[in-house]
Amino acid sequence: MQIAHSFLEILAGFIIIVGLMGIATALLKRFAPDLTREDAPPDLFIMAINIGVGLACGLLGGYITARYARGNPLVHALVLAIVVLLLSALSSLQMKGKQPIHYLLILTTIPSLAVLAGGVIRLHQLGVY
Question: Helix or strand or coil: residue 96?
Fold first, then answer.
């Protein structure tokens, strides 16, 4: 039963991350359609927004996962961070050649580090760290 709870806690954090990033992407496509076209040249402003959204969603997802973890909150956040890192790396491989490599590296690492930071924030609230 513990494994099922852990899986659901990690899944909740993942759903938060994916849901919020989906909402942010939809809002960007709605309010800035010229900047978010697939054939549009890389724009620094949109890149910064994407990195900021990844940071915010990762923090919240990691915090939610750690908040509802019944075991060690940081371990749950770490598992979610690994999942996010792997999926971000796959996404970056698909975008290779369409975006600058430094942007893809940042976009791969920032959300997973933010997930860990969200778990650390929860530990700080608990007085552990």
Answer: strand
101 CB-near residues (< 8 Å, 6+ apart): none
Number of domains in the chain: 1
Domain that holds residue 22: 2-126
Rounded to whole angstroms, the Cα distance separating 66 from 98 reads 35
Q: What is the 3-state secondary structure (H, E, C) of 5-42?
A: HHHHHHHHHHHHHHHHHHHHHHHHHHHCCCCCCCCCCC
Q: How far is CA 111 from CA 26, 27, 32, 83, 129, in A?
A: 19, 19, 23, 11, 21
Q: How far does Cα 3 stand from its chain's mean position?
A: 23
For 34, counting Cβ atoms within 10 Å of its Cβ (0-12 exposed, 13-18 middle, 19+ buried), the class is exposed
At residue 46, the pLDDT reads 84
In this predicted model, what pLDDT tens digit does every residue of 18-76 receive, in sequence order? 999 999 989 988 988 877 777 677 788 888 998 999 999 999 999 999 999 988 899 99
CA 5, CA 65: separation in Å to the nearest integer?
A: 11
